[in-house]
Amino acid sequence: MNWDWSAVVDFLPRFWDGLLVTLQVLVLGSLLSFTLGLVWALGFRAPSRVVRWPVHAVTEFVRTTPLLVQLFFLFFVLPEWGVQFSAMTTGTLAIGLHYSTYTAQVYRAGIDAVPAGQWEAATALSLPRHRTWLTVILPQALRRIAPALGNYVIAMLKDTPLLAGISVLELLQQSRLESAATFQYIEPLTVVGVAFVLIAYPASLLVRSLERRLV
């Protein structure tokens, strides 16, 4: 195997473009999964079964079907019903929705871990329900679940190459385009693989450090 450094240099413009798209999807998908996951978690605790059962059904369906299938459904099937998004938007929505069902369980565990005495103290102080959640329950829950949420961010990063299936110009798709144009496959794919390691491994160390500090 002959390594061609000129192929690496030629790939760099595409690499930076793909890295920017990957990070955009990661940030926006993470924000969506964290926000929607909290909505699902609150739905799990709703007093009415009319709310709880649909939330359980939707989250279980999304969590037990492959992300790639959901991605193709959003991109290829929804336009048949008159709902169409760009590839970038579809990929972000798919990743955010898929991982929101996992972050929902993390939120749920964190909320359940808050001691019952905290709820009782808030009730004794006659705090409004929204203030109880915002100032008493959620801050304590988030402190417990921050490392787990960080792990899902890393998992989302590793799933972004699936977006190449709908032609999102992230890192893998950029390497495929470069390889198709130059017939050089080893260098672009190796650079992409190394890039994921250089992003994911330090992030995992950061999550471990955060977990130790919070514990």
TrEMBL record:
Gene3D superfamilies: MetI-like. The chain crosses the membrane at residues 20-43, 185-207. CDD domains: TM_PBP2. InterPro entries: AA_ABC_transptr_permease_3TM (IPR010065), ArtM/GltK/GlnP/TcyL/YhdX-like (IPR043429), Ectoine_EhuD (IPR014341), MetI-like (IPR000515), MetI-like_sf (IPR035906). Residues 19-207 form the ABC transmembrane type-1 domain. Pfam families: BPD_transp_1 (PF00528). This is Ectoine/hydroxyectoine ABC transporter permease subunit EhuD. It is a multi-pass membrane protein. NCBIfam families: ectoine_ehuD, HEQRo_perm_3TM. Belongs to the binding-protein-dependent transport system permease family. It comes from Streptomyces lateritius. It comes from the Bacteria. The keyword Protein transport does not apply. The gene is ehuD. Keywords: Amino-acid transport, Cell membrane, Membrane, Transmembrane, Transmembrane helix, Transport. It is found in: Cell membrane.
